[in-house]
Sequence to fold (609 residues):
Amino acid sequence: MDTCLQLVDSRLRGNDGKETVTIFKAIPKSVYICLLLPALVLLVSAMQSMDGHAVDLHQVLSGSTATHWLGTDALGRDILSRLAEGIGLSFSVAVSVITVCAVIGISVGMVAAWLGGWVDSVLMRFVDIVLSFPGILLAIALAAVLGPGVENLIFALAAVGWVGFARLTRAQVLSLRHAPYIEAAIASGQDTVHIAFKHLLPNIAAPLLIEASFGLAAVMIGEAGLSFLGIGIQPPDASLGTMIREGSQLMLVAPMQVFYPGLMLFLLVMSANIAGDALRDYWDVRSKR
Amino acid sequence: MAKAARKDKFAPMLARLVLFRILESLPTILGVVTLVFFLLHLVPGDPVDALLGETALAADKEALRKAMRLDEPLYAQYINYISGLTHGDWGKSIISHSDVWTLITERLPATAQLAATSLLLAMILALPLGMIAARFQGKAQDAAAMSFSLLGVSIPNFWLGPMLMLVFSVFLGWLPVSGMEASGSIILPTITMGTALAAVLSRMARASWLESMQSDAIRTARAMGVAESTLWWKHSARMTAIPVVTMFALQMGAVLGGAVITETVFDWPGLGLLTIEAIQRRDYPLVQGCVLIIALFYVLANLLADLLNLWLDPRQRKQS
Fold:
């Protein structure tokens, strides 16, 4: 992974990999500060190893106690453990969705840009139509139709998210299509797949990684949003979105129930946004929006 | 005099261009309608089973299937749907049996009201913020404005809403918790929705101020001795207006997507809440109508942004 990033980095900065810089240097400290609290929750929860699904009706909505550090919810379940589960879920869903989006989007964008002609027109028309919906609305409609479940949630979010990658990849590949080294590769008879992976991908990686970083933020909000609306993760599983939903119904009795999961989600989303900004500044890629 | 003559020459060309752009969006609209139709007709499982439950009588199921015209082949349903839409027939709600179009128009004013106040708030916040950030680029004011923007884009509105309720309605008791009847009930939903919009817009405003201030035109004007304040308020402001107005028009569409969540949080009886209610009741024709109307507004907002751009930016006109 690290050497791969170094390769990407050296291509982008044109130093032929002699300088050993990695993009991790570009990530500002504020990202780590944002991730501090969620990491602490994960760590403490791992050490306590409590079951976030264990119902204890004798201890409903308790405040902080020696056993339940952040208290319990309406069913007496340990909030800290549920937060940890929610953070893990939020992160794993976001990474899965972005991976699916990137694979589909990059492939479609490359095919469209490389083949051009009617293939390009058809693919981009479809992308335009998907982009004619406010993203969250299409995801809501899809998730509602498909029914609850993690796989359906990932599918709904990915169905909306891939278009960004497709557009970006297409634009980038088009700008490189006639670069001397690409034409040289074509002239020397290298096959298209080789050119795509060896020459195109490393050279368009910077904007794609930035898109992925902002995409993580958007997907985390999207997943929690759908779960908040009751069409994403279903009880008894804990998602930050379902916890906010349950918490906001108990606001008068237990205000912290809605505060904790929201704070965690906010910190995760903000760290992804800061990382995206930092990468953009580092590679000096102009804002595409 | 000369200006008027030039206007006359360009007016028919501009009109043609506008017409062309409008015609160009028609295939997109057809695509949106098609996607919405297939989205809800390729539901895994039988919608009739979902509505009546698997234990329902076969006769009842058959009746409902007939009523929903689900017994016809898919292409026939599709043609029916499209021809219905062109006649203003958006279908009937399964639950309340009223026209989908009537249900939508009942809820539209509430959403329009909320969207208008949110966009207004976003504008009032974002323009000064963006300008201050650009004017003091790299200084504390810039950092403060951009931190606000970062917070605004990172804070989920389904959390901001409950937190605002908690502070202003529960602890302080200043504002109503939810609904639309009580006075001042629009304030919290407006802040909830406006914050994210303001965050995006202020970033945009900052970037375009900076870009215009670094442009050749401004550099030339500065070299010719134009006062710095004139540069800012007269020359740069006009250049900045183009991307900001475009962005604003785009946000008008995005705001409707955001309304789904904000209206659910605050029980605001608009289109967004109607969508969620329809989803929860599995009222598919109504879901279809809601999703379609929001998407159509979004397409129209994009078209409006395009046309505004054409109107404001002479370079665009020439290019087209």
